[in-house]
Write a structure and sequence with these properties.
Blueprint lengths: L30 E8 L13 E2 L7 E3 L7 E3 L9 E8 L2 E7 L7 H9 L6 E5 L5 H4 L2 H7 L4 E4 L7 E3 L7 E2 L5 H7 L2 E4 L4 E3 L4 E3 L17 E5 L2 E4 L9 E5 L3 E6 L6 H12 L4 E7 L11 H11 L3 E5 L4 H10 L12 E5 L1
Parallel strand pairs: 6-7, 7-8, 8-11, 17-18, 18-19
Antiparallel strand pairs: 1-5, 1-20, 2-20, 3-4, 5-6, 9-10, 9-14, 12-13, 13-16, 14-15, 16-17
């Protein structure tokens, strides 16, 4: 990005502090398919619909001698975390990225095996942030497909803990760059926006915080900074993945959405100069008492942005899910592990 000048300034997107910038040239794609490999929910009774394909119980089989056949269908594994495959098509060429890896060492890999994922088609990994429920699946991934490039914010290595009043602090697992590189992952650190897959995928980098209702993490969430534990509200390594579906608008995929769903969507629109939010998928972090005051203003701001598809997942919380389902009767779709969402020009 660079500063703009002259009469064209008013047509340019602007940073959070009002500085005009040239938009990032995010190349339009003809189609994107986002497949959830890890999420908090698996519902085998959800029906497929136009643009949405659900995985059935038969996606997973297990030995079970108590049945006459000796086996039973077990479907897929849900866990508190998030991971998704993003397949992008331009013309007759398709490429795939992995966005996050879930919480357990093997949950994502097992679901991928049951869904028949071809790991050889995956071109790289993007990590939304360093929290362990998004970065726990690298062991299974390394066994399936070593030596992938991995795009991350440098803050993912930050040590963090939860320290509620009156309770002993609990330190979160922290990613080890040394271990990841030993497994063959090629770590690429970026604070600023990055373009991947021939400039058809945008990784936002650090997100501008402009709303007055997306306040980030409460005081018990702490980071070790220069040897001292201190409140870490912003989770600055939080970033999202953005695509531009030709003639439809932006598709935004979040991990937890610690920067705030509205901040993220508006930031993506400023970066690209694309005025339309076509779809928003992923964790919106509106679950729990500390975050529920943000549900109503988030709903109202998203109504103004008017996405055609809204698939909140992971840490969104049941109260927010109910509010968004009521506000977006045509756009809201329930998430479930193994579901694929197809967005086409």
């Amino acid at each position: 990005m660079c500063d703009s000048d002259g009469s064209a300034a008013e047509a340019m997107p602007r940073t959070a502090d009002g500085e005009a910038v040239d938009p990032i040239a995010l190349q339009p794609v003809d189609e994107v398919v986002i497949t959830t490999l890890v999420d908090n929910t698996y519902d085998a009774l959800l029906p497929s619909s136009e643009g949405v394909t659900r995985a059935p119980f038969a996606a997973g089989l297990a030995a079970a001698p108590q049945f006459e056949s000796g086996a039973t269908a077990v479907g897929l594994i849900a866990e508190h975390g998030f991971a998704a495959l993003v397949t992008v098509r331009r013309g007759d060429r398709s490429t795939t990225l992995l966005f996050d890896t879930g919480i357990s060492p093997d949950g994502m890999a097992l679901n991928a095996e049951r869904l028949g994922v071809d790991w050889g088609a995956v071109q790289g990994v993007v990590l939304s942030h360093g929290h362990f429920d998004h970065a726990g699946g690298f062991a299974g991934l390394a066994r399936a497909t070593p030596s992938l490039p991995m795009t991350v914010h440098p803050g993912i290595w930050t040590r963090r803990r939860l320290a509620p009043p009156g309770i002993d602090p609990s330190e979160m697992p922290t990613l080890s760059r040394r271990s990841l590189e030993a497994e063959g992952f090629q770590v690429i650190e970026r604070r600023q926006p990055s373009l991947l897959l021939e400039e058809s995928v945008l990784i936002t980098g650090e997100v501008d915080r402009t709303t007055d209702f997306e306040l980030g993490m409460p005081p018990p969430h702490q980071a070790l900074v220069e040897g001292r534990w201190q409140h870490d509200p912003l989770v600055l390594d939080d970033q999202a993945l953005v695509l531009n579906v030709r003639d439809k608008g932006l598709v935004v995929l979040t991990g937890c959405g610690h920067a705030g769903a509205v901040n993220i969507a508006r930031h993506a629109m400023r970066l690209t100069g694309v005025p339309t939010l076509h779809a928003l998928l992923g964790g919106l972090h509106l679950g729990g008492a500390a975050f529920e005051p943000g549900i109503a203003p988030t709903r109202d701001a998203l109504i103004e942005l008017s996405p055609t598809l809204l698939v909140p997942g992971h840490c969104t919380g049941w109260r927010a899910q109910h509010a968004l389902a009521a506000a977006f009767p045509d756009a809201w779709v329930p998430g479930s592990v193994g579901s694929s969402y197809r967005l086409s020009a």
